[in-house]
Amino acid sequence: MLENILLIVSVLLIALALLQSNKASDAGQIITGGNEALFGKMKERGLELFISRLTMFFGLIFFVISFLLFVK
Questions:
Q1: Per-residue pLDDT tens digits for 24-40
Q2: Stated pTM of the model
Q3: Is the dihedral of CA 25, 30, 32, 33 positive or negative?
Q4: How many CA atoms lie less than 13 Å away from 62 in the CB half-sphere?
């Protein structure tokens, strides 16, 4: 039973991780010298914040179930 839940949580976690926006795209501004990104740290809002929190929740559930299966 717990193995099936872990499988479902794993698939959902992978899907949510793929849905998140690419935050590493700003790394190329080191070469170009993009000063506008220096003070332009944007907070996550709306759907992006929801997906980020849902990913953290499913990551925590994945960790707990994996730990329970390991102890068992």
A1: 555 555 565 555 555 55
A2: 0.71
A3: positive
A4: 14
Tell me the C-alpha distance between 43 and 32, whole Å.
23
Residue linked to tokens 């907070």: 43
Count the neighbouring beta carbons within 10 Å of the beta carbon of residue 16: 18
Q: Which tokens hold the place of 68?
A: 């329970």
Chain CA centroid to CA 4, Å: 22
d(CA 53, CA 32): 32
Structural domain for 38, as ranges: 2-21+28-71
> Which regions of the chain are under pLDDT 50?
none
Q: What's the total number of domains in the chain?
A: 1
Token couple for 8 = 């479902």
Q: What angle do CA 42, 48, 52 make, to 5 degrees?
A: 105
